[in-house]
UniProtKB/TrEMBL annotation:
Stored PANTHER family: GLYCOSYLTRANSFERASE (PTHR43630:SF2), POLY-BETA-1,6-N-ACETYL-D-GLUCOSAMINE SYNTHASE (PTHR43630)
Protein name: Glycosyltransferase family 2 protein
Family listed: Belongs to the glycosyltransferase 2 family. WaaE/KdtX subfamily.
SUPFAM superfamilies xrefs: Nucleotide-diphospho-sugar transferases
Species the sequence originates in: Flavobacterium cellulosilyticum
Length: 245
C-alpha cells in the first residue's frame, strides 16, 4: 500500500497550523519546514507529532525542494498552513494514491474572502504528486514540473485565503515585489501600455470571463484587487528600472 507524506511550509502560523495538521492526520507522516518562526508554530507542530525542520527562507521553490529530501512516502501532498483537507477530499486522496493512473493531481481551491467562499474565484493547482517524479521552479507562485500525466480531483481544498481586505491588498503588494524583481533580473521592461492595459485586462478576465460577478460584492472586490496587484507589479518594475527602490 502506498504511503502519503504531507509537507507544510510555515512562518509565524500559530493561529492556523494546528487545524491544518489535524486535517491531514490520516497521512503517514507530516513534515513541517519552518522559516525560523518567532511564535509558537514549531512547538505546536512538534506537539502534534510532526517532523519539524528549520531553514531560513530563500524562496518558495527552494524551500519545497529542500523539504522533499526528508520525505519517506510514495506520494506527497503539499499543504499551506491556511488550508484544510475536507473529509470528501481525504477519501479521494487516499483512493487516488493507490493507483498508477496519474503521476500527479490538481486540486480545486475556492478562495475565502469577506466571510464566504468564492466558488468562481478559484485556482486549480498541482498539490498531490508521486515522489521522485517532479521539481519546483520559480521563486514566487512556484511551478511544479511533473514527469507524467496529471489528473484533477473532484473535491476541493478549503483555503482560508485572506484575513480581510487589507491583508488581501498587502499580500498582492508583497507578491508584486517578488515578481517585479524576477522580471527585472530577466531584463524585462515596464511600459506605459503594460502599466495601463494589463490591470484592465486582468479585471475583465477575472470578473467577466471567470464569472466572478456571480460571487457578488466579494467577487467585485477580489477582481479589483487582482487588477491592483498587476498594476503594482509593473509599477514596482518601473521603480526598479529607475533605481528608485
Amino acid at each position: 500500500m502506498n504511503k502519503l507524506s504531507v509537507i507544510i511550509l510555515t512562518y509565524n502560523e500559530e493561529f492556523y497550523i494546528a487545524d491544518a495538521i489535524k486535517s491531514v492526520a490520516f497521512a503517514d507522516e507530516i513534515i513541517v519546514l519552518d522559516s525560523l518562526s518567532t511564535d509558537a508554530t514549531r512547538q505546536i507542530a512538534i506537539d502534534l507529532g510532526c517532523n519539524v525542520i528549520t531553514r531560513e527562507f530563500t524562496n518558495y521553490s527552494s524551500q519545497r525542494n529542500y523539504a522533499i529530501d526528508y520525505v519517506t512516502g510514495d506520494w506527497i501532498l503539499f499543504l499551506d498552513a491556511d488550508e484544510r483537507v475536507t473529509d470528501d477530499l481525504r477519501i479521494e486522496i487516499l483512493k487516488s494514491i493507490q493507483t498508477d493512473k496519474f503521476a500527479a493531481y490538481k486540486i480545486w481551491f475556492p478562495h475565502f474572502f469577506m466571510g464566504r467562499f468564492l466558488f468562481h474565484y478559484t485556482d486549480k493547482v498541482i498539490r498531490l504528486v508521486k515522489n521522485n517524479n517532479f521539481i519546483f521552479e520559480n521563486e514566487v507562485h512556484e511551478k511544479m514540473i511533473v514527469n507524467g500525466k496529471i489528473g484533477v480531483l473532484k473535491n476541493y481544498m478549503i483555503h482560508l485565503t485572506y484575513k480581510g481586505l487589507f491583508h488581501f491588498i498587502d499580500k498582492k503588494d508583497r507578491y508584486a515585489w517578488f515578481q517585479s524583481k524576477m522580471a527585472y533580473d530577466k531584463g524585462k521592461k515596464a511600459t506605459l501600455f503594460l502599466l495601463l492595459f494589463k490591470p484592465f485586462y486582468r479585471f475583465f478576465h477575472t470578473y467577466f470571463v471567470k464569472r466572478v460577478f456571480l460571487d457578488g460584492v466579494p467577487g467585485l472586490a477580489a477582481a479589483s484587487i487582482d487588477a491592483y496587484g498587476v498594476f503594482s507589479r509593473y509599477a514596482k518594475l518601473l521603480l526598479l528600472e529607475k533605481k528608485l527602490k
